[in-house]
Design brief:
This protein is mainly beta. It has one domain. Helices cover about 5% and strands about 50% of the residues. Strands 3-2-1-4-5 form a five-stranded antiparallel β-sheet. Strand 1 and strand 2 form a beta hairpin. The protein is globular and about 30 Å long.
């Protein structure tokens, strides 16, 4: 909830979807981060066609700790629908 309300938003790249993990990378002030997010309880919020999700997404991160980030939540999604 904190990241949705107060987190900075930036561009990221979805690298892989492994079981219930989204693996993504993003850059904050010249530092590249690679992170994963457990989406086992958020699968219903995935857009249709998850096989084509790899590529550009949006990320929300904590400005004081950029390694703390998400690309999917119940109230927000940085994933783009298939074909976009």
């Amino acid at each position: 909830m904190m990241l949705i309300a107060h987190g900075n938003m930036g561009d990221a790249n979805l690298v892989d979807i492994r079981d219930n993990l989204l693996v993504y990378s993003y850059d904050v002030r010249g530092v590249e981060y690679t992170a994963s997010q457990d989406i086992s309880k958020l699968r219903e919020f995935l857009p249709a066609g998850t096989g084509s999700l790899a590529g550009p997404v949006l990320v929300r991160y904590d400005a004081r700790n950029p390694a703390n980030s998400i690309v999917l939540a119940e109230q927000w999604s940085g994933l783009r629908p298939a074909g976009h």
